[in-house]
Amino acid sequence: MVTSLKTNELLRKIKEHLQKGTYIVSAHALERQNLRLIDLEDVLHVLKTGFREESKDLFDVKRQAWRYAIRGRTIESINIRVIISFEDEMVIITVMRVK
User: Fold this and answer.
1) 1: pLDDT confidence band, cut at 50, 70 and 90?
2) What is d(CA 24, CA 88) in angstroms, rounded to the nearest whole number?
3) Phi then psi for 94, rounded to 5 degrees?
4) Nearest Cα to 30, choosing from 38, 42, 18, 19?
5) In the prediction, which pLDDT does 23 show?
6) Are strands 90-97 and 23-25 parallel, antiparallel or unpaired?
7) Tens digit of pLDDT for each residue in 36-68?
8) Predicted confidence band at 99 (pLDDT cuts at 50, 70, 90)?
C-alpha cells in the first residue's frame, strides 16, 4: 500500500498545486458544489486555509491513491470538507457541508 503523506507535506503540496493552477475539479465535485451551494472560490479558500482531518482520509484501493480530507470555513464562515487526491494534478473529488 502507498504511504499517506505527512500533514505538513500534504499542506505544502496542496499550496503548490493551487499556486501553479495544477488542479482539476471532478464532475462529481461540480455536481456536489451546485447541489450544496458551494462555489469554487470557497473550495479553494478552504484548501488554502483549512486543516487536515486525518480521521477522514481514505485509501482508494482501486486507484491505489490516498484521498485526503481538508476541513475549514468558507469566506462566509460555512464549515465544509473538501476531499482531494493526487495524480499528476491535484483532483478535487467532492465537497460537503459539515456541522
Assistant:
1) low
2) 10
3) -160, 165
4) 38
5) 98
6) parallel
7) 999 999 999 999 999 999 999 999 999 999 999
8) confident
The gap from C-alpha 67 to its chain's centroid, in whole angstroms, comes to 8
- Is the pTM higher than 0.85? The answer reads yes
Dist CA 98 CA 24 (whole Å): 22
**8 A C-beta contact, residue 85 and residue 68:** yes
Question: How many angstroms from the chain centroid is the CA of residue 55?
Answer: 14
Cα–Cα separations (whole angstroms), residue 15 to 6, 12, 44, 59:
14, 5, 10, 21
DSSP string of 47-94, one letter each residue: HHH-EE-GGG-EEETTTTEEEEEEEEE-TT--EEEEEEEESSSEEEEE
3 state SS of 96: strand
Question: Given a cut of 70, is residue 27 above it in pLDDT?
Answer: yes
